[in-house]
Automatic annotation (TrEMBL):
Domain Glutaminyl-tRNA synthetase class Ib non-specific RNA-binding stretches: 7-162, 165-254
Name the record gives this protein: Glutamine--tRNA ligase
EC number: 6.1.1.18
Native organism: Homo sapiens
Chain ranges of the Glutamyl/glutaminyl-tRNA synthetase class Ib anti-codon binding domain: 565-665
GO molecular function (one): ATP binding
Subunit structure: Monomer. Part of a multisubunit complex that groups tRNA ligases for Arg (RARS1), Asp (DARS1), Gln (QARS1), Ile (IARS1), Leu (LARS1), Lys (KARS1), Met (MARS1) the bifunctional ligase for Glu and Pro (EPRS1) and the auxiliary subunits AIMP1/p43, AIMP2/p38 and EEF1E1/p18. Interacts with RARS1. Part of a complex composed of RARS1, QARS1 and AIMP1.
PANTHER family named among the record's database cross-references: GLUTAMINE--TRNA LIGASE, GLUTAMINE-TRNA LIGASE
InterPro entries associated with the record: aa-tRNA-synth_I_CS, Gln-tRNA-synth, Gln-tRNA-synth_Ib_RNA-bd_2, Gln-tRNA-synth_Ib_RNA-bd_N, Gln-tRNA-synth_Ib_RNA-bd_N_1, Gln-tRNA-synth_Ib_RNA-bd_N_2, Gln/Glu-tRNA_Ligase, Glu/Gln-tRNA-synth
Places the protein is found: Cytoplasm, Cytosol
Function as written in the Swiss-Prot or TrEMBL entry: Glutamine--tRNA ligase. Plays a critical role in brain development.
Annotated transmembrane regions: none
Amino acid sequence: MAALDSLSLFTSLGLSEQKARETLKNSALSAQLREAATQAQQTLGSTIDKATGILLYGLASRLRDTRRLSFLVSYIASKKIHTEPQLSAALEYVRSHPLDPIDTVDFERECGVGVIVTPEQIEEAVEAAINRHRPQLLVERYHFNMGLLMGEARAVLKWADGKMIKNEVDMQVLHLLGPKLEADLEKKFKVAKARLEETDRRTAKDVVENGETADQTLSLMEQLRGEALKFHKPGENYKTPGYVVTPHTMNLLKQHLEITGGQVRTRFPPEPNGILHIGHAKAINFNFGYAKANNGICFLRFDDTNPEKEEAKFFTAICDMVAWLGYTPYKVTYASDYFDQLYAWAVELIRRGLAYVCHQRGEELKGHNTLPSPWRDRPMEESLLLFEAMRKGKFSEGEATLRMKLVMEDGKMDPVAYRVKYTPHHRTGDKWCIYPTYDYTHCLCDSIEHITHSLCTKEFQARRSSYFWLCNALDVYCPVQWEYGRLNLHYAVVPKRKILQLVATGAVRDWDDPRLFTLTALRRRGFPPEAINNFCARVGVTVAQTTMEPHLLEACVRDVLNDTAPRAMAVLESLRVIITNFPAAKSLDIQVPNFPADETKGFHQVPFAPIVFIERTDFKEEPEPGFKRLAWGQPVGLRHTGYVIELQHVVKGPSGCVESLEVTCRRADAGEKPKAFIHWVSQPLMCEVRLYERLFQHKNPEDPTEVPGGFLSDLNLASLHVVDAALVDCSVALAKPFDKFQFERLGYFSVDPDSHQGKLVFNRTVTLKEDPGKV
């Protein structure tokens, strides 16, 4: 009978029936466990929960000095020791301190008594461990040793419950990698040491559109420094494949080196007729980054040769975006700075019989297999007179052009060097009525500025022959043109004319609408420049065009904001909660860490009053299975307060809609830990919050096979949702435009320039990582 009573007792403590029967076979262990359970029941005055029972079993099976049984049982029963790490520390302490009396203050300090490890601290610690091993995780996936992540999180949070850490690791790894694939279920093979070293140095491979892959180093500077790209050294242009050497080349290179001192020189040459987009960010990083990585200089040169489309706001915006990305040009120059020199060289080309004035119309010049111009062989003297007449305004637009005598790589014959345009220039006024083309201007401006590496995107490869030809035709220093692949994003449209259509139709507000991928739009949405630069580094410098998923850019944004955006609490769809037994006569001041994972970064203060507001979705009268937040019989913790609230009464309006809740509160350490902790606000500020989704429904909105109706037919009508009456805690009251915060459990948000005194406006930058277990 006694054995049956003991078996029942042991199973009630949480032991399986098999484990309980094995324990009964050990008389000493059985006696000690019965004694521990009896003492715990006397302390508790009620039945023993299974978590406490398992700790009592661990105590009874591992304690050697039975004198300490009552002492340790009292700590377990009172839940001062409530985790396995604490029990292990306690057993080690009594083992190493055999003499009486025990110093309880020292004992409690060594065993973590009173230390509360919150779920959010566990979440932060696991996230930090995963971020440290992310490259290797992405490569090895579920073959990675997950125990390493748990160990690192445990090292930071010594007293955390191991099961909670394991659950958090499982959840975050599932979010990062997704469900297990067939390959993940295969037996793990040995990973070569070289592969591990490569993984430490590089991130996961990105697949480019044409099926190639390119390893991406973690640092853009590492990609660009020294011999990394196999670029020529300054002055050794002639060693580049395809570079044209003339009898004057070596002397010109010698003069070039005397002027530059062997310094690397690059340039970023945008046209000031639109706003820069994410693809330009790669060009900026490449040009400025390559110069910086090799102790060189980079010019910002505006290709202002088309006055019809150029506006002052575009010049300003481009300068702002270059600075915003963290780069300072060696000098800001303009193609128009060199108009006089360019004109003189055009005259010289005619003199050398290498250019002529043509009267074919624009439509006759289109295409790659056009017939030779009937004016190609006109006398040089005649072309000189006609070109002068063009400059003096004696021809109408389209009536005459200056063309160069060469056939380009793509078969285009005799590209235009100058055309007539009766549009005043923003810098030169009406001095000129003829303007040079890109094909003529680009290489000669590079030559004037002694650029060593003319870096441009792949579509300009067809113009490389004209680049070399023109410099050599005039016997001037010839830089080397290097091409790289463009960067594109799915679900995006970046051509200027198409963005103008989006603005004109009202689909977006302007060039800086946060749903676009212009740099001004990304800044307004709250993307940090460091994140954009990191994204460009991950994409890498490849020859093939790359088309990336937006979520890869968003991952870079989260990585930066996680370390730089202080935490705050906000409620989007609020539900009023009245705490009927509020523990103070007036509101309490709650200290909230700006960064829970690093409290050395300071705290901010928020009020905690009898009336708080929670998210309406954090309460359910009739919860579905697995719902962990506030419900009947299911209390929930309020983050950072140390209090747990429990539902007492639901107040409904005439329509049956829940209007408010009445709850009671207790200290979090005065009872069983709740299943979840939720965010809240009290005495909040009202604000507007703008929630953004993808602007387009398909990956390639410009592809007629994917979207036959054109990109305007592919708009996502739910791409913007405005919450007019959101609530945010008062710690953000003094925030300025572009200040960034993490609203706990909601995402990262940035203050919009539309904010004004009395009402802040926030843009959701990106969501937090999706929680697969969140219900």
